Amino acid sequence: MPTFLQVFDFYTNLNEFYGVLTEHCTQANCPAMAAGPSLNFMYTQPADRKQVSLAAPTYIDSVFALIQGLLDNEDMFPTHSGRDFLPTFPATVRHVYRQLLRVFAHLYWSHFEDVLHLRAEPHFNSLFAHFLAFGREYQLLDQKDLTADVAITALWEKWKAKGILVE
Predict the structure, then answer these.
(1) What is the SS3 assignment for 28-85?
(2) pTM (two decimals)
(3) Which of 85, 99, 105, 118 is most buried (most C-beta within 10 Å)?
C-alpha cells in the first residue's frame, strides 16, 4: 500500500513544476482544463458533486487545495505511529492519483514547449515515469485513465519501446 510520504512527494514535486509554469498557464492561455483537442476535464465540486468546467489554473489550484487538505487531515493520512488508515484510504489515494494524472496531462499537452524552453524535460519526464510506474505497481490508475489522453499513451508507448518502462 502506498504511504503518506509517497503521495506527498508526487504532489509536492508536481506542484513545484506547476509553480514554474504558472506564468504560462493563465486564464487567457488555458480557458479549459484540456489535455488534447477533445479532452477537457470537468471539476467535481466537493460540496454538491456537480461537475463544472474550469479554466486550467482554477482547476489545478482547486485540485491542489483539495489534495493539501487531505494530506493535512490526520484521520485520512495519519502521521503518528499506532494510527490506522481509514478504510476509504485506497479509494482516496486513487482519486488523488487520477487528479494528479490530469495535471500531468494538461502540462504535457499545453505546456510541453515551456518545459523544453526551461530545459526541464528530463526532470519532468523522470517524475512522470516514476509517477506512472508507481501508479501501475499499486494499481492506482485504471487503464482508461492512461489511454484517455493520446499524448500520455504515446509517451508511455515510447518509454516501453526504449525499455524505460517494462510491463
Answers:
(1) CCCCCCECCCCCECCEECCCCCCEECCCHHHHHHHHHHHHHHHHHCCCCCCCCCCCCC
(2) 0.86
(3) 105
